[in-house]
Amino acid sequence: SDHMENICGYLMKYTNLVTGWQYRYFVLNNDAGLLEYFVNEQSRQLKPRGTLQLAGAVISPSDEDSHTFTVNAASGEQYKLRATDAKERQHWVSRLQICTQHHTEAIGKNNPPLKSRSFSLASQGSTNSPGVQRRPSQNAVSFFNVGHHRLPTGKRVPIMQPDHLVDVREMMSQAEGQQRDLIRSIECLPASGHLTSLDQDLLMLKATSMATMNCLNDCFHILQLQHASQQKGSLPAGTTISWLEPKISLANHFKNGAAQNFPAEINKRASVREEQSIAEPCQLTREPEEINPDEELEDICDDKEDDLGAVEEQRSVILHLLSQLKLGMDLTRVVLPTFILEKRSLLEMYADFMSHPDLFIAITKGSSPEERMIRFVEYYLTSFHEGRKGAIAKKPYNPIIGETFHCSWRMPKSSVATDAGTNSSAHTPSEQITLPKDPEGQAELDYYTVKFVAEQVSHHPPVSGFYAECVERNMCVNAHVWTKSKFLGMSIGVTMVGEGVLHLLEHGEEYTFSLPCAYARSILTVPWVELGGKVNINCAKTGYSASINFHTKPFYGGKLHRVTGEVKQNMTNTVVCRVQGEWNSVLEFTYNNGETKYVDLTKLSVTRKRVRPLEKQGPFESRRLWQHVTESLRDGDIDKATEHKRALEERQRNEERLRAETETPWCTKYFLKDGDGWVYHKPLWKTVSAAQTQQTDSN
């Protein structure tokens, strides 16, 4: 409390796109827990232009610059403010945070446990300000018709048999309906007056009721597993029961604070699909399928993620979600709102990292180990720009276990660099590589083919495996990635755990590499992506290695998307090449002979991938699996996209429970477990080795 002081002064406030930034006079009222602002200091005696309750608010310095910060109230209202310099911003932020913490803690201290109090929802008897003193407790059961069911005293709860779980499920469904009615009733209250939808007791009631229902759903699942184990004996050794993700998706319950009602037809179709998935587990064959590249057509899909409208409209949903998260919390099992999704699966995003196959194939054409390492570094650094669709930080679909994605690229042999002097930045912007055709319309055979396959091999933890090969150049890459996402306050961090290996069979070289972390910044304003962390590339045979640093933007000043690195000969500890620049703009390569090469990523040619039409894809191939979600997002129908997404996720949960109950292990289709990693079932290095052995035997 020694640091709680009433401060005031001028700050710039962002109003809208038309008006922009305007100077306003702000006053921090610590006693009432309010942030007020006026047109100027002279009008301070008048009614404030605006007021924010700081209890439960989030105060966040912005990533944009060292002067800006945001105040996000629990009500969903936001002030975007700018101080004159970094020092003044820090002064305001620290005082606001102290005041916010004080009044947020006061709510908890002044409210005894729920079982010993009831909520005053219809009371008219209090004249004290809710920011200073709580209202006396009064009964609110009649207002919302919420009752409590208690077991008769002295009776022991019997062990429920499976048929009793049906009754439990019914009661829980009724409770979920009552909880939705409760939230709807609270949201329908007026925004001003004696009893409002922003009443602190009601906000607490909303959060508690949702948490309770999520907990009950988790407990119900544990009971199901318990009954399954009783039928088959005890659970196998090493089996653990994990907490499940919330069954009540925020996106299904709230849209700007209002409950959503999906059409009955959609709900009916979804329930039919779920019932079928429970009664009939997936009978699809898990045998690997050979994809014929000739069946694949050049991709014409071009979904650019540049729409900010939904993010602005759904700010209240984001704030409500953030209020339930804690710093460092694992987001793997958190159901995120549908409107933040981009229109592709994570497996397809990995494929889009291969959108410069000419640079990939050119690696093995390097004339020396040094040149091949430098070419691999060039390809590696240019892959991330095209892998991101637009500047907005949207999230790809979480792949369903067993989901696969197939595609390929065809590159004219004449377009692949053969010497070190080829400058790959000479292409014109947005240039597309197309193949020459003969008079009959068939593509000539003078091209390289790069084939790609990815599979989601695990759900918890979420692990993806992907593999690409160019048979003509005797090269392939195999990788597995475990995505671990964490909540970091006003940003989300994603760690890519795993390893990739590039095999240049012509030279007998293997290059191991890792992937950087990704961060979604400014998630309450305009979310954007940056990469961070140190990655290493090593070739044990040649003794060459590369160390690359992706620099996150510092708190004060600094550039965005900066990357630096160096290629070194480990035996002599000699740096043979240095690189610097931005991973989404221009990269500068400086060689030890004094030469410099610039690669402009915005002008690099992009080769469109080739994908089979939807009607030829299997049910678990990404585009066919997510087609209804993608179509709904293209149409801007967030509600419909949410329902399709929920049906897919629910089917996955049901099948996972069935496998757990029947102790049936999951069988992958294309990738095999190899120690801590995953390897493609028929990699090129095994095929070539077998062919060489056969040839030796025949001789």
Automatic annotation (TrEMBL):
GO biological process, one term: lipid transport
SUPFAM superfamilies, alphabetized: Oxysterol-binding protein-like, PH domain-like
One Gene Ontology MF term: sterol binding
Annotated compartments: Endomembrane system; Endosome; Golgi apparatus
Residue ranges annotated for the PH domain, each copy included: 4-101
CDD domains: PH_ORP10_ORP11
Record region (Disordered): 104-136, 416-436, 638-658
Main localization of the protein described in the UniProt heading: membrane
GO cellular component: cytosol; endosome; Golgi apparatus; membrane
Polar residues bias locations: 117-136, 416-433
Similarity annotation: Belongs to the OSBP family.
Subunit structure: Heterodimer with OSBPL9.
Protein name: Oxysterol-binding protein
Organism: Toxostoma redivivum
Gene designation per UniProt: Osbpl11
